[in-house]
Amino acid sequence: MNKDTIEGNWKELKGRVKEHWGKLTDDRLDEIAGRQDQLAGEIQQAYGISREEAEKQVREFEKASKH
């Protein structure tokens, strides 16, 4: 799944993102609107992890969402 696919399918993916990263609020998810860099930044901030770890989690989520 590439960046355009995430942004294009954000409404469908938003629920799964919320399940996976429950600390992210609906308001923040609406503002992110599928942008990977912002999603990683929000995950980093909400969970107190490194940027690299947040980006890794987003990549893993994308892989799992393909199936």
| Number of helices, counting only DSSP H or I runs of 4 residues or more | 5
What is the tally of beta strands?
0
Helix content: over 70%
User: How much of the sequence is in beta strands?
Assistant: under 5%
Task: Give the overall shape, derived from the CA principal axes.
Answer: globular
- Summarize the main sheet: none
Mean pLDDT, nearest integer? 88
Uncertain runs with pLDDT below 50, 5 residues or more? none
Radius of gyration, taken over Cα atoms and rounded to an integer in Å: 11 Å
The structural class is: mainly alpha
Order of helices and strands: HHHHH
Alpha-carbon distance between the two ends = 10 Å
Describe this structure in words.
It is a single chain. With 67 residues, the chain is an all-alpha fold. The protein has helices spanning 3-8, 10-20, 26-32, 36-47, 51-66. The model has no long low-confidence stretch (mean pLDDT 88).
Write a concise keyword list for the protein shown above.
globular; single chain; 0% strand; mainly alpha; 67 residues
Chain-wise SSE layout:
Layout (H helix, E strand, L loop, with lengths): L2 H6 L1 H11 L5 H7 L3 H12 L3 H16 L1
Helix pairs in contact: 4-5
Produce a short descriptive summary.
The protein is mainly α. Helix content is 78%, strand content 0%.
